[in-house]
Specification:
This protein has 7 helices and 15 strands. It has 270 residues and is an alpha/beta fold. It has a single domain, classed as Glucose Oxidase, domain 1, CATH 3.50.30. A 9-stranded mixed sheet has the order 1-15-13-7-9-11-12-4-14. The protein has a two-stranded antiparallel sheet with strand order 2-3. Strands 5-6 form a two-stranded antiparallel sheet. Helix 3 packs across helix 5 and helix 5 runs parallel beside helix 6. The two termini are 26 Å apart.
Length: 270
């Protein structure tokens, strides 16, 4: 019997980078979304079966944009219109969610991944709050890192902002705003027909203090049908200067939901 090379030699020589953040009560969350709630509802000893076995179980309350997550195409409308030139109100079923473009329609993503390291390019530990990343700069970073962005890629943009994760007000950018791509960067990504893109901040795009505009979301999701991932941890990839990899992520099949938590993986061969 021949040994399958994918299950042994090749995989054993691969390295897997976990790009997801841990979920816990009090974790950083957007002010637009409900908080994460966790409680151990059934504890060991509460119920013990005649054979002596017992179990514990928890109650978890999440929203589709909890922690590291993927935005469904139905998440964003521009002037009341979702991707495909349809009125957003027609997609909604009262409180029951989206009847079209919900996250349950998103196929598992297995794609070529590219990480563009903005603070590495600028020579700083992380970008300052509110700092925009333009399309011109993304092009320069790709050239500097000797990577090309192709159709179907998942492009992850590092700002270094996740270094502030343990300080929720700072990570939210309450007094500083958040760095990230601007509308020109979104247009640059869309022109390359990427499958999805993401960053390490809550908002994905550059956001000044008090600003609530979502121009990059409108370009990517509403106009071009490109998914956005947020709160993706790119620090280990940057540390090891890994700019190309196999990207794997799959959202939960939450029917009608506008997004889903994910645990993205970057897989690098030997």
């Amino acid at each position: 019997m021949h040994e399958d090379p994918l299950t042994h030699a090749a995989l054993e020589k691969s390295r897997v980078y976990d790009l997801g953040q841990p979920l816990f009560p009090g974790m950083p969350m957007s002010a637009f979304h409900p908080p994460y709630i966790f409680t151990l509802m059934v504890r060991h000893g509460d119920v013990v079966l005649p054979d002596g076995c017992g179990a514990s179980n928890e109650l978890i309350v999440i929203n589709g944009h909890t922690g590291t997550h993927l935005d469904a195409i139905g998440h964003v409308a521009e002037n009341g219109i979702v991707h495909g030139e349809r009125p957003a109100r027609e997609l909604q079923q009262g409180r029951r969610g989206l009847k079209e473009l919900g996250v349950e329609t998103v196929a598992p993503i297995v794609a070529r991944g590219v990480m563009l390291d903005v603070p590495g390019f600028r020579g700083v530990p992380r970008l300052p709050g509110g700092s925009p990343v333009t399309g011109v700069e993304l092009a320069a970073i790709a050239e500097h890192q000797e990577v090309d962005v192709r159709a179907g890629d998942v492009v992850l943009i590092r700002t270094g902002w996740i270094q502030l994760w343990d300080d929720p007000p700072a990570y939210r950018g309450d007094t500083t705003g958040e760095p990230g791509p601007d509308a020109s960067a979104a247009e640059w990504l869309a022109a390359r027909r990427v499958r999805a893109c993401g960053s390490d901040t809550i908002a994905f795009e550059a956001r000044a203090v008090g600003q609530s505009a979502l121009a990059a979301h409108a370009v990517l999701i509403a106009r071009h049908g490109i998914h956005i991932l947020e709160m993706v941890n790119l620090e280990e990839l940057a540390r090891d200067r890994i700019y190309r990899f196999l990207f794997v992520a799959s959202p939960l099949k939450l029917v009608g939901a506008t997004g889903s938590p994910v645990r993205p993986l970057a897989i690098v061969g030997s």
